[in-house]
Amino acid sequence: MKDYNPNTKKGGRPPKAFGQKKSYRVNLKLMTEEYYSLIAKVRKSNTTISSFIRSCLQKGYVKERLSVEQTGYIRQLSGMANNLNQIARQANIQGYTSVRTEYLDLAAQIDDIIKMIAP
Asked: Where do the domains of the chain lie?
């Protein structure tokens, strides 16, 4: 007769390694419009919601918010655009040659600020 050994494996799937086991659950609240948008995209991709969200995490891209410094630069740009419109108005009234130096100076400042915003 065979001896009984409690340490003998009984078959079945081998246990997953530490990093492969899915052990974290994330709850997410969505508005109705967002939920139906998610469902439509899941159906279009022919996957489950979980696998769709996992693929979005791996392949997706989220834009960073603007920093306080970049917001200040954008404010400066909008002020300069207003000045440029005023210069264009003066150019139409007085002729281009009288406001040419102001225009070139402002254009150089705008170029500098754009270089600061977009590295």
From this structure: 30-62, 68-117
